[in-house]
User: Fold these one by one.
Assistant:
Number 1:
Amino acid sequence: MPIRDRDGSNIWQRRTSRQQWLSWFGWLLLVSLFIFCWRLMNENTLWMFVQDAPRQVIDITDRMTPPRWSYMERLWKPLWDTLNIATLGTLLGITMAVPVAFLAARNTTPSDRYVRPVAILVIVSSRSINSLIWALLLVSILGPGLLAGIIAIALRSIGFIGKLLYEAIEEIDHSQVEAVLATGASGSQVLDYAIVPQIMPAFAGISVFRWDINIRESTVLGLVGAGGIGLELSHSLNTLAWPQVSLIFIVILGTVVVSEWISARVRHAII
Amino acid sequence: MQWKKPPFIANQWLRYGLLVGVVGYLVLGLNSIEVNWIRLWDGLPRGWAFVSGFLTPDFLSRGGDIWEGIVESLTMTLTSTVIGVLISVPIGVGAARNLAPTPVYLVCRSVIALSRSFQEVIIAILFVAMVGFGPLAGFLTLAFATIGFLAKLLAEDIEDIDESQAEAIRATGAGWLQLINYGIQPQVMPRLIGLSLYRLDINFRESAVIGIVGAGGIGATLNTAIDRYEYSSAAAILIIIIGFVLLAEYLSGFIRKKVQ
């Protein structure tokens, strides 16, 4: 217990003076790094614009209210498209993620040395690149439309589902595998009877969770041309139709809340 | 009679109902995709150009832009995480049921809900409209998103603390601030540091995205490269992003292990 001697009486302290100096130095380092970054970042900032921000806020809120409710009738189709991008993208992602997960899990991979690193690399690259970036790439390759959105969502989902699923596979109870093996079962029978039943609840939970995230992400994919409600958002922003923008925001918010509720209910039912 | 595996969904009606529902949805959903096969065929060489771009990434010809974008992204990430953490600590304390009075609790919880419900990209659009193009808008976006994430998890953590330690501090006659400092903070600090590092990692990833709507960072550079069909530069940028994400993930994992 660190104790400081002051005027002959011992006073309790939380840290020794060495710890105190170290933490003080750490904070100093962080603050100076922050100031350095802040100055570097704002080299080109036009503070005139920034000073104007409060007026802009008032101006934009003024233009956004009231939302143009009559615009809703043109939003149903893009909304349906958005749901399709998220759902079909999730399904496509699942079909690609499952084999990758089995190849990446230590206990099911055919080769720890050669196949596993490749599967892990697939998972990592898919995870580090946001679906919006995938969409940007795919729109320039496949052309604008739902297909680019679906594939973008699928590619991003591989990493997420693959990672969580392979961790679930690695955590299974090995004695069940052994029991099935002891009956003389072949490799695929072991997979079917010993491994799959154990990971099924986790798998369903992960998929629904990812679907929920994908709904969120698919609402903005249209900004880069990949279809859905984001496309309408992009049109409305480009034409400065702020009452439409606010309606789209409300629709997106509603969709996200509903999908989150569904996903929470389903996961609750499974687990 | 032969033994059969029990089905995953026990209720027969639910099982077949779900199956019919899924098939019906797939028919409807797949029909709504309109694929322009001619455009797709035209795109194939471009797809190939992208794949070969990955094999021969071009770091140099847009080297200056890439460097600028990375610097913007990194500075944006650090400043927004620091400010976001600073703001989310009081909000997180206010959103903890066992510390805050009900009105404060409700206000803080609604701030969290507001910040969590919108995608970073949408927030970025609004901030770009307010303060103009550039990394400052990105900084504001990421800081705002950090508040929702961190304050929520911090509040949950504070609600889960060991109450007896707080009570022991209270019994010494400590004031509210002393209670926070000696009874609560030591318990939540390791997790707060871990979460901040995790958020630093997320903020870097997001900084690569919000540039697409004009909020600065490497995303803007990437967007330009793809718009110009410069796939080798785009591939180089993607490789750099993946590298940084891996590095950040590894480092934050390492530090978190040390702290906890």
Note: Chain B touches chain A through 59 residues (CB under 8 Å).
Number 2:
Amino acid sequence: MSDSILHSVILLSLLGIVAALVLYVVSKKFYVYENPLIAEVEELLPAANCAGCGSPGCRAFAEKLVGTDDISDLFCPVGGNDVMKLVSEALGKEVAEKDPTVAVIRCQGSCEVRPKTTEYQGPKSCTISALIYSGETDCQYGCLGDGDCVAVCQFDAMYMDEATGLPVVITDKCTSCGMCVDACPRDIIEMRPKHKRDLKIFVGCLNEEKGGIAKKACSVACIGCSKCFDICPKDAIVMENNLAYIDPEYCTLCRKCVPVCPTDSIIETNFPPRKEKKVEPKVTAKVEPVKPQPNA
Amino acid sequence: MLKTFPKGGVHPPENKLTSTKTIKRLPAPKVVYVPISQHIGIPAEIIVDRKDKVEIGQVIARSGGFVSSNIHAPVAGTVTKLDMIIDTSGYKKQCIVIRTDAKNESNFEEIDFPLKKEITLQPEEIVQRISDFGIVGLGGATFPSHVKLNIKEDRKLDCLIINGVECEPYLTADHRLMLEKTKEILVGIQILMHALRVDRAIIGIENNKKDAIEAFKTLSVQEPRIQVAALKVKYPQGGEKQLVRALLNREVPKNGLPLDVGVVVHNVGTVYAIYQAIQHNRPLMERVVTVTGKKLEKPSNFWVKIGTPIKDLVEEVGGIPEGTRKIVSGGPMMGKALKSTDVPVTKGTSGILVISEDEASRGEPKNCIRCGECVSVCPMGLEPHLLMNLSEKNMFEKAAQEDIMTCIECGSCSYVCPSHRPLLDYIRFGKNITKELQSKKV
């Protein structure tokens, strides 16, 4: 009786020793060297795996950061300058400093200003309805309102405003990963610099039609009148295809263009109210809700 | 036992309301809007300018490449502008706007040429003229016809199929044309046989057009090379691959063309246009359009100049009736709902269908109950429910493996789905993305 116990103990111990030896040999023989820096850098990254940097996930980005000599054109939009600074310290490589950006919706075509002329009955997806036709309104450049951008946002930074039928970006949550920019079949969403206190000025319209036709489809459409172009002191406004575009690189946020726009199609966000100097201050339609300031 | 294709297919209510209505000639409209992209392939290049005077049949936009087509002025008049006009696609596209010259008689003459049987041109000349005269497939796909006739020497070809199936419900344009222009179509078939150097032609007609079958049978007695085949009524028999299978029992390989099995298919409307081009020097400037709908006062068939706004057609049949929900260009199965009645008639417009509220609305999509109806009706032997799911979940590589690209977009799956799932919408979406991905790879 005691023999059988003894035998089994010895047998199992031997088996264990053999298995341990095999494992030891294999682990030495097939050892894969991995730069410990990769794990270290990965720790620093935000682990959002959003692919906003262009790599498929944070791990892959960490490998790229460690593996490339010149990382000045690599950037994690989610972590921003803070994370990139840490990465720079960990790796001892130069990183570029970028202004933080945020997604903006360049369309103000709510149900009120842009009347529906047809009704779409297909599946609720912008990409599919864009395949079929130009949308429920007469504007073939504006938001389709089926929320593809909201669906792809991994950070809950967007929602559809029931009242206007347009998507809204929650600036504080937006990590500027760029998923929504790719998802939008109309290229309405743009990444623009966030500036201090999230001050932004941009043209909220993409309609390339001639003024009259654009205005007929949507009362806040850019009609390409060039008034903003004329008044801009910094030549930051480009007129192309009956459409104004404010180049964020040159724009100094002086706000001179906003009141001259006859159709209120230039959007300003989070500016303090204007001083009551002008004869008739224009009320600008705001697509984004005014959020409490993070540092206010 | 009537012939048909073996796999799948549906039989929606035929509703051929206008099958007894003779084709009336619609007077030339005051203004025509001629889009430069009325065919599959490269858009044509505009060669006229504002204020130019154009004669009827003059080339106003030249073919932009091999798979492209010339576009001719459907009326004599003055080019008033080159503008962006909304077309069947739902987007604004480049158009040539011509104001009709009310004094020019050529705009209003009744075109009724005597039948001309002798074929004087050589095959190469015929193909060249078909290309010059802007003839495209009038069945709906608008594929430039000369491309189908340019056959390399090493390809074996033994049969020409003439598509007179018209399997879409409501539409009767081809039916009426076959009845009224039987002799001309037979000459057109001979022209095509001459151009393709084949000795056999089959006209495929569905059995709900018995008068047309009869007309062709009596007239083709003297011409033993042309057969007439009656087909069982089943949608989508008018699809090239289905028709070849039904008539000759040959399977066109997937991603292949009928030419791969030695067949070329042309629509009867195209054949008539070819007859007009070869025998009477008439470029493609007008076509037969069925204007129909259950609530319409007097639905009918018309000879319509290319570029006529659809609202003119709807007015001609008594205006848009109350309770209209949709106006569709084409048939109810494959047609496209229009965004506005300003859309002009193009070479591919076979019908205008005015649908009322009760017929138009789509049911609320529910969950898939795995009944397999879509699989059993798919004429291409695909699994529509699977393709939809894959497209919805962005699994395009898997969808490509499941042959999403062979879908002919006939819509039978969406038609039968008891849960009203938008199968075709998603499959079309998946096809588009797959096409993009594949072109990126190459």
Note: The first strand of chain A starts at residue 101 and ends at 105.
